[in-house]
């Protein structure tokens, strides 16, 4: 038995050494810059034979560190060619974690190209000394022609959240419907089916500050008369986006070029948020107070999971955080806290105002937000019960002296008579 154990020891040590060679530290897996590349727009879509094509390429740093000097290179294959080889590589520069950048590339589609799907390679690297990382993308060329006469129309648009705030992510869901009401239609004596084909659908932003995170939908199949389909696009509103209504374009490739359509999709951005206003004087008497606030949702749509948390040095609040829950637009909610000064704090012994900070937290769709109100003060006031008692005693004593004086005066008058 001892010999077996001794022979196993070198084997175990060897296995440990081998496994250590192939082990990757956990910090290496999550740290460092990491680039994610996406084609966010193809214009026109699908690409047209014998014409130029504009590709909008987005790069996002999904790693934990800054990418110091990002390059994007496009490697076209037949039937695509660059307008100029000098434009094959484009520099973005530094890209911080969580940030995105876009660049446009111009390609020519050969006049002898065939309809169908062709591939193109896009390469990225985080700095000049790092290796290239590449990814292949499919580009659709040309539109198939079908004899079907169904027409696809935009039936409904739903944004979640209804109104975005700068920095928000959310979805835009469109419902497409085949407006045909009968299975067939006769045109010039020829019968046609009324199926509608959605060969492709792409959502494109038309203004800065809006990013569509999804590639185009392709080959969505056939819609019979009256049938509908929902397409959901993930979108992001950047922190720099301006307030107001931004327009996106939904481009739909139907049965043929004659049935292609472009629809305007509005997206609203508004930065108004939760307001917190004191509803009565913020005073603390002998280290205790009941403070009250009006909480208002000034945003155009509902907020969820609304909560208010007060903080002040040397003061404890009950409850520590007030959870309101959902709040509709323009809804007003009145909340109340009990404030108690800590025994070890100087609040009980000072008349100086104490700074009060209120944190309002809430959800707009899937996005958590917080805004701070910090220009509020609690005024400590000390009321001494001992002084009040002394004043009462002094008053009673004066009254007693007055009564005694009156009695002595009356007695003296009677004796004079």
How would you characterize the overall build of this protein?
The protein has helices at residues 2-22, 26-30, 385-416; strands at residues 35-43, 52-61, 67-75, 80-82, 89-95, 100-109, 116-125, 133-141, 152-160, 163-164, 169-178, 184-187, 190-193, 196-205, 210-212, 217-223, 228-237, 244-253, 261-269, 274-278, 283-285, 288-297, 303-311, 315-318, 322-327, 332-341, 354-364, 367-381. It has 417 residues and is mainly β. The longest helix has 32 residues, at 385-416. The strands form seven sheets. A five-stranded mixed beta sheet has the order 10-19-18-14-16, with no helix packed on it. Strands 21-28-27-23-25 form a five-stranded mixed beta sheet, with no helix packed on it. A four-stranded antiparallel beta sheet has the order 1-2-6-4, with no helix packed on it. Pfam families: CARDB. InterPro entries: CARDB, Ig-like_fold, LPXTG_anchor. One of its GO terms (biological process) is proteolysis. Keywords: Hydrolase, Membrane, Protease, Secreted, Transmembrane, Transmembrane helix.
Query: Based on the structure given, which CATH architecture of the largest domain is correct?
Result: Sandwich
Strand portion? over 45%
- Portion of residues within helices: 10-25%
Distance between the termini: 136 Å
Q: Please tell me the overall pLDDT.
A: 85
Unreliable spans are: 1-29
Question: What is the CATH third-level topology name of the largest domain?
Answer: Immunoglobulin-like
CATH top-level class of the largest domain: Mainly Beta
Compute the number of structural domains.
Answer: 3
Radius of gyration: 37 Å
Biggest sheet overview:
5 strands, mixed
Describe the global form: elongated
Helix count equals: 3
CATH superfamily of the largest domain: Immunoglobulins
Strand order of the largest sheet: 10-19-18-14-16
- Which structural category do the helix and sheet elements fall into? mainly beta
Domain Gram-positive cocci surface proteins LPxTG: 382-417
Pfam families: CARDB
Transmembrane segments: 391-409
Keywords: Hydrolase, Membrane, Protease, Secreted, Transmembrane, Transmembrane helix
């Amino acid at each position: 038995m001892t010999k077996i154990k001794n022979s196993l020891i070198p084997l175990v040590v060897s296995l440990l050494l081998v496994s250590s060679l192939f082990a990757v530290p956990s910090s290496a897996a999550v740290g460092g810059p990491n680039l994610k590349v996406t084609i966010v727009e193809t214009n026109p879509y699908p690409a047209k034979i014998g014409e130029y094509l504009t590709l909008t390429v987005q790069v996002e740093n999904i790693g934990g560190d800054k990418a110091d000097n990002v390059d994007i290179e496009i490697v076209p294959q037949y039937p695509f060619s660059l307008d100029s080889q000098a434009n094959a590589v484009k520099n973005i520069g530094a890209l911080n974690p969580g940030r995105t950048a876009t660049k446009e590339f111009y390609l020519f589609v050969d006049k002898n190209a065939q309809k169908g799907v062709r591939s193109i390679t896009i390469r990225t690297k985080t700095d000049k000394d790092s290796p290239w990382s590449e990814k292949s993308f499919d580009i659709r060329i040309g539109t198939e022609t079908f004899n079907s006469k169904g027409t696809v129309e935009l039936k409904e648009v739903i944004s979640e959240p209804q109104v975005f705030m700068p920095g928000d992510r959310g979805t835009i869901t469109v419902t497409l419907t085949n407006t045909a009401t009968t299975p067939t239609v006769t045109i010039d004596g020829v019968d046609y089916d009324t199926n509608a084909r959605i060969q492709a659908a792409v959502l494109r932003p038309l203004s800065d500050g809006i990013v569509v995170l999804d590639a185009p939908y392709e080959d969505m199949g056939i819609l019979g008369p009256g049938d509908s389909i929902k397409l959901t696009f993930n979108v992001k509103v950047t922190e720099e986006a301006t307030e107001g209504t931004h327009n996106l374009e939904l481009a739909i490739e139907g049965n043929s070029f004659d049935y292609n359509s472009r629809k305007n999709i509005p997206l609203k951005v508004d930065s108004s948020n939760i307001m917190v206003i004191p509803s009565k004087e913020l005073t603390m008497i002998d280290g205790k107070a009941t403070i009250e606030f009006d909480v208002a949702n000034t945003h155009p749509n509902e907020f969820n999971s609304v909560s208010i948390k007060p903080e002040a040095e040397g003061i404890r609040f009950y409850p520590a955080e007030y959870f309101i829950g959902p709040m509709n637009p323009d809804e007003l909610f009145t909340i109340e806290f009990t404030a108690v000064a800590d025994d070890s704090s100087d609040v009980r012994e000072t008349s100086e105002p104490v700074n009060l900070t209120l944190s309002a937290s809430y959800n707009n769709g899937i996005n958590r937000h917080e805004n701070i109100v910090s220009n509020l003060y609690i005024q400590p006031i000390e009321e001494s019960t001992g002084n009040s008692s002394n004043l009462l005693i002094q008053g009673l004593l004066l009254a007693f002296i007055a009564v005694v004086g009156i009695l002595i005066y009356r007695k003296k008058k009677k004796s004079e008579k």
